[in-house]
Amino acid sequence: MPILTTPEVRIHFRDEGTGVPLLLLHAFPLSGDMFDAQVSALREQARFLVPDHRGFGKSSLGAGPATMEALARDALALLDHLGIASAVVGGVSMGGYSALALLRADPGRVRGLVLADTQVSADDEAGRAAREELAQAVLARGMEVLVERQLPRLLAPGAPAAARARVEAMIRANLPAGAAAALRGMALRSDGTDILARFGGPLLVLVGAEDAVTPRARARTMADLVPGSELVEIPGAGHLANLEAPGPFNAALGRYLARWNGP
């Protein structure tokens, strides 16, 4: 079990496959296991670097809110630990927020960017208040709160039963303190429009056609910021398109990775 120990936290990660380094950052409130289908299908095209964010999976929780800047520091520390100068960086939902924070912190480390079911905008006052209320509820009642409130929003109504069961199991496997720290960290994130607009690409944006959390219009906003970007809508999928529809998601990601693996 590979573990990176930093002055702040212990980060569990996977390092599998061959090809261009691909750092994948997971969604809230899951773990790096959400990318199993991508690792299995595309391990001949990419070297997958998949950490569990601090407070999730097998990673420890640092002090205070798990800000997107802190998650970015952890990811950059992983690249340093593995001696990787630059990587394609991808993120789903909260992982997209942390990918943008990494891009802001050290743009030279990002040779390509994959943003899935996420957005560039920051929370408004109502959104921050809602995250704090949810954080307090999770600390009081446990992860059952997130199963009740988040699971119906994360997946499309017609999501496969196996995907629903897998997402629920990942939620339940995490600790309330980690979920609360991440909720508070997401509430503190800054708007990423400026840094994404300065990114030279290539950018791949993916969105579930039935994503009710960050719908297609928000994906289009991100794609429009980067000339030459590609926007792919995944039919029948909700907010976790890579889990709900791994076939079309992997096909789009594989085409994107081919630019680094061609003759």
Describe the structure.
The longest helix is centred in the middle third of the chain and has 17 residues, at 125-141. This protein has 12 helices and 8 strands. Helix 3 (94-105) links the parallel strand 5 and strand 6 (110-116). With 263 residues, the protein is of the alpha/beta class. The relative contact order is 0.17. Helix 4 (125-141) packs antiparallel against helix 8.
For the termini, the CA-CA separation is 34 Å
Q: Order of strands in the sheet with the most strands? A: 1-2-4-3-5-6-7-8
Structural class: alpha/beta
Shape: globular
CATH class: Alpha Beta
- What portion of residues belong to β-strands? 15-25%
**Number of helical stretches of at least 4 residues:** 12
Residue-averaged pLDDT:
96
At the third CATH level, what is the topology name? Rossmann fold
Question: By CATH's scheme, which homologous superfamily applies?
Answer: Alpha/Beta hydrolase fold, catalytic domain
Q: What portion of residues is helical? A: 40-55%
CATH architecture assignment = 3-Layer(aba) Sandwich
Number of domains: 1
The Cα radius of gyration reads 17 Å
**How many beta-strand elements?**
8
Ranges where pLDDT stays below 50 over 5 or more residues in a row are none
Topology as a string of helices (H) and strands (E): EEEHEHEHEHHHHHHEHEHH
